[in-house]
Specification:
By secondary structure, this protein is α/β, with parallel strands linked by helices. It folds into 2 domains: 8-18 and 107-227, Rossmann fold; 20-103, DNA polymerase, domain 1 (Orthogonal Bundle), CATH 1.10.150. The protein is 47% helix and 11% strand. It has helices at residues 20-34, 41-60, 66-80, 87-100, 111-119, 132-141, 154-157, 164-174, 188-197, and strands at 8-11, 123-128, 150-153, 181-185, 201-205, 218-219. Helix 6 links the parallel strand 2 and strand 3 (150-153). InterPro entries: HAD-like_sf (IPR036412), HAD-SF_hydro_IA (IPR006439), HAD-SF_hydro_IA_YjjG/PynA (IPR011951), HAD_sf (IPR023214), PGP-like_dom2 (IPR023198), Pyrimidine_5'-ntase_YjjG (IPR052550). Pfam families: Hydrolase (PF00702).
Length: 229
């Protein structure tokens, strides 16, 4: 399948262009070393990755606040590890994490090459559920901010993907036509179904094989976009 009528491409950021898991691990490693915390990074991440996913889903569904997300994911992991820490320290580390996270800038393989390729053909944009201050830092430090004409985050839009409002908001500020636009992301619920629900085409990015059941094209490497766009 090849899309031939598109003018605007909307990317998710985390887990799509920006390698969240790798950069997150580096941020925690730096924090643990800075504060001489006797904690195994490997053990911590074993719990943190699924716990973080759980709380982000709750945040995405408007069931918890930003502050609850930042505190609760740490609280639960430290409890699971039976690591002695009080609420003040948890809140401090949560802020440290937000500070350190965007300072690391690993992208998925092929990200720069595909952005160079697409930039000459399309208007490029970002739609992210991430926090404004953090996402801006990621784009800047990874040296990819200049590729994107607009950046829509959930704080600006007032809602999170898959809410239709954030997609409509992004299309509006991009001055993009719905039938000439496409969404690329790693979340089947937030990015793909969210886009389809408002009439946007979509491309699913995942290194895991989802077989033939998908309603949309899937890529497992960013450079595969050259075959589709």
């Amino acid at each position: 399948m090849k899309f031939t009528n598109k003018t605007d491409i909307f990317f998710d950021l985390d887990h799509t262009l920006w390698d969240f898991e790798k950069n997150s691990a580096l941020a925690f490693d730096a924090i643990f070393k800075k504060h001489a915390m006797a904690i195994s990074l490997e053990n911590f991440l074993e719990y943190y990755i699924p716990v973080n996913f759980k709380y982000w889903k709750l945040y995405q569904e408007e069931k918890i606040t930003q502050q609850e997300l930042r505190y609760s994911r740490f609280k639960e992991v430290f409890d699971l590890l039976d690591y002695p820490i009080d609420d003040e320290q948890i809140n401090f580390l949560a802020q440290e994490y937000i500070h350190y996270l965007p300072t690391f800038n690993h992208l998925f393989e092929g990200a720069i090459e595909i952005l160079d390729y697409l930039k000459s053909k399309y208007n490029l944009h970002i739609i992210t559920n991430g926090f404004h201050e953090v996402q801006e830092g990621k784009l800047r430090n990874a040296n990819i901010a200049h590729y994107f004409i607009t950046v829509t985050n959930s704080e600006k839009a007032g809602v999170k993907k898959p809410n239709p409002i954030i997609f409509e908001y992004a299309l509006d500020i991009a001055k993009a036509e719905k039938d000439k636009s496409i969404m690329i992301g790693d979340s089947m619920e937030a990015d793909i179904q969210g886009a389809l629900n408002v009439g946007l085409d979509a491309i699913f990015f995942s290194e895991s094989d989802y077989g033939d059941a998908l309603k949309v094209p899937q890529i497992r490497h960013l450079l595969e976009l050259k075959k589709i766009l």
